[in-house]
Amino acid sequence: MKIDISFSPAYAMANVHLDQGESAKGEAGAMMAMTPTVDIATSTQGGFMKGLKRSVLGGESFFMNTFTATGPGAEVIFAPALPGDIIHWELADKTVYLQSGSYLASSMGIDIDSKWGGAKTFFSKEGLFMLKCSGTGDLLVSSYGAIVPVDLAPGQTYVVDTGHMVGWDEGVSYDVQKVGSWKSTMLGGEGLVVRLTGPGRVYIPTRSPESFVAWLTPKLPTHRS
User: Fold this and answer.
1) Contact between residue 96 and residue 168 where contact means Cβ atoms under 8 Å apart
2) Angle at CA of residue 96, ends 125 and 42, nearest 5°
3) How far apart are CA 12 and CA 105, in angstroms?
4) Is the dihedral of CA 98, 104, 109, 115 positive or negative?
5) For residues 124 and 192, is the Cβ–Cβ distance under 8 A?
6) Residue ranges of the alpha helices (H) in the chain?
7) Considering the entire predicted model, what is its pTM?
8) Cystine design at 37: which of 74, 139, 163, 188 (Cβ 3.0–4.6 Å)?
9) DSSP 209
10) What sign does the CA torsion over 194, 199, 200, 206 have?
């Protein structure tokens, strides 16, 4: 599998080149285009309960699509629903975690499941569950806005707004906290933050979908009878 990402960071798309007989899987609706030498099969990727868990708890689609090359020169182009970035995260017998909605596509060697985030995420805007991606292969991750990598040394900490998380290594620990006093948290516009502690890599987006929705909603026309 060869992956080319173009038009980053504003309108990124990922062109996945498959050898004959090779397969890749993607989020439902993520396929933008493909060659005729690619077959699509739709399934829950792990059974009904796993698909339901990933959909209801992890914020992803109940079904996933598998794309298999049936001839030479096979290509599949993946693109996210929102304008933004895509990163290619190569895993080697490794586990990483993604925020809801960040998974785009992956090779067949990556298992996608949801994970309980624990009570410490209870007040987070991003919810209680996240996606757990494990295995060896290629993982495509998307975001609204550009994606910025932050590498943390052992014991090094970094503070990120809860709406600006894309993914992080399994070795990175996290704790959701308020900003300053409760008055600052409720009235200062920053809300809750995630305190991350290394070692490991963290990916953060330069824009937050929640902030965009909050900005847009008051500007939408209201229905008047």
Assistant:
1) yes
2) 85
3) 14
4) positive
5) yes
6) 48-56, 182-187, 209-216
7) 0.82
8) 74
9) H
10) positive
